[in-house]
Every structure is written in structure tokens, then in C-alpha cells.
Amino acid sequence: MKREGSVAKFDIEREDLERLLQQVELQAMVRSHRPLLCRDSMARDVISVPENATADEARKQLLDHNARTLPVVDAEAKLVGAVGLRELTRATDTVKGVMSKAGNASPDTTAMSLLSVLTDGRCHAVVSVNAEQRILGLITQTDLLAAAMRLQTADEPPLKAAA
Questions:
Q1: Is 117 exposed, middle or buried (0-12, 13-18, 19+ CB in 10 A)?
Q2: Could you tell me if 148 and 93 are in contact, meaning their C-beta atoms sit under 8 angstroms apart?
Q3: pTM of the entire structure?
Q4: Host domain of residue 48
Q5: Is residue 58 part of a domain?
Q6: What angle (nearest 5°) sits at the alpha carbon of residue 106, between those of residues 131 and 44?
Q7: Three-state secondary structure call for residue 139
Q8: What Å distances lie between residue 71 and 17, 55, 107, CA to CA?
């Protein structure tokens, strides 16, 4: 904070204020609705790829299933990372060499708490795992948006058809 005469001036950028406002709005939305847990909105038929899969195998999985992100699992089927088409463009051998850290959450985590992760521009999905890091489900940006919409409209009366 800077002082010019008797007026205090804050050294803060517009983008910082926008991020702060988004966080405040998110927290207000979470508090104003019943808790929606990850288990309520996650897809359970998750396609994953082993860490020793080739880049071509992973790319084929992504394209065949129209997915943006694939969880990567080790030999014991435990989550070890995630991979998308962007990472696969750098792959020379196996997925293990280019995978990134996977966003993960418990099925009992409040789903709306994933908003900041899923809107950071890098992460497109969060993997729901149990205590042993085995995959239980996947929550995408679309899943979370649909869940938020269901929450928003649950308290509103249905729209009447136009005459």
C-alpha cells in the first residue's frame, strides 16, 4: 500500500482483483447450495493408460474416446499421472516420460472446490481416487458445469412453455 497525502493507494493489478472476485463468488456459490460431492458428478467408466504405453497407443485412446485427458496408471493400477495430446507431441518413447501430475480428489470432496483447478487453463479433468490411489471416477470441466447447472436450477421453479 502506498500513501499519497491522506489517501491510501493499493498496489494491486486488475487481474488480481478479478481472480479474488472469482474466488469470493465461488465460495458464495458453494455455501449457498447443498454440498455436491465428487461422487455425485463423476464419470465412473474411466479409460486409463498404463505408464509403459507408447505415445501412439495413448493418442489412439484419446482420439477413440474423444477425451482430452487420460489418467496414467502403474502396474498395480494406481494413479501415477495424466497425459493429453499436448504432452504426447513431445513423447519419444513411453507415456511415463511425458505424463504430468494428475489432479485428484476423494469421492467425498466437495465438487465445487475443484472449480479453481478445472479453470486454470491447464487441467481438464480431476481423477477421483480411493486411499490406495486406485481410480474410482473422473470429473471433467463439463461434468462440473453440468452439476453446477443442476444445483442452480434445482431451487428454481420450472420454466413454463410459451403460449
A1: middle
A2: no
A3: 0.71
A4: 36-154
A5: yes
A6: 100
A7: strand
A8: 34, 14, 16
